[in-house]
Amino acid sequence: MVNKILVSACLMGFKVRYNGSEKAEVIAQLARWQQEQRLVIHCPELAAGLPVPRPPAEIISACGKDVMHGQASILENTGRDVTEQYRLAAWLSLRMAQESGCTAALLTDGSPTCGVQFIYNGSFNGQRKSGMGVAAALLSEHGIKVFSDTQLGELIAWIKEKDHESASASRSQAIS
Ligand code: SF4
């Protein structure tokens, strides 16, 4: 069975953040995975009905897990509370991942939804803090391994290992 990867839609078009020298490798790898029909391209915020363009939103002095556990809010820079829309976005990303058989996710860092290694701290002044966005936190809590767009190397290694495990399991089943 192919190990599928949920991918932040905004990463496609190969606008992945990378060091210059890694560009060719990133493009080639995403193209290979797309050819193998391994990628499930998804934007949780659009799926939840948020408009394009939309005002910037940040998790207020907390992280995605706190929002999903009802202990924190997400506000737009206009002051509008969009916590419920972002919670819905997270649940929709989990449903998409589970229904498509994804075992991993490659997500855009910094987003209050997709952030994996960092998010913004809620003061709308560009200050980062470590922590996950709502979708990354929920996916992770449900056993889907999440990687940021700067962790492509780790994801490649992880997928190779998972494919190897899947192939071994299939061989064992065939023999027994
Ligand atoms: S980072 Fe934002 S725009 Fe990109 S896929 Fe995630 S929710 Fe959508």
Mind sketching the topology for me?
Blueprint (H helix, E strand, L loop, with lengths): L3 E5 L14 H13 L3 E4 L1 H4 L9 E3 L4 H5 L5 E3 L6 H18 L1 E6 L10 E3 L7 E3 L3 H8 L3 E4 L3 H24 L1
Parallel strand pairs: 1-2, 1-5, 5-8
Antiparallel strand pairs: 3-4, 6-7
The chain binds iron/sulfur cluster.
Iron/sulfur cluster (SF4) binds next to helix 2.
Task: Give an overview in words.
Helix content is about 40%, strand content about 20%. It is elongated. The protein contains 6 helices and 8 strands; from the N terminus they run βαβαβαβαβββαβα. With about 180 residues, it is an alpha/beta fold.
**Using only CA atoms, what is the Rg?**
17 Å
Number of helices: 6
Calculate the terminal CA-CA distance, rounded to whole Å: 18 Å
N-to-C SSE string, H for helix and E for strand: EHEHEHEHEEEHEH
What would you call the quaternary organization?
single chain
Strand content: 15-25%
Task: Give a quick set of tags describing it.
single chain, 176 residues, alpha/beta, elongated, binds iron/sulfur cluster
Summarize the structure.
The chain has 176 residues and is an alpha/beta fold. It has 6 helices and 8 strands, in the order E-H-E-H-E-H-E-H-E-E-E-H-E-H.
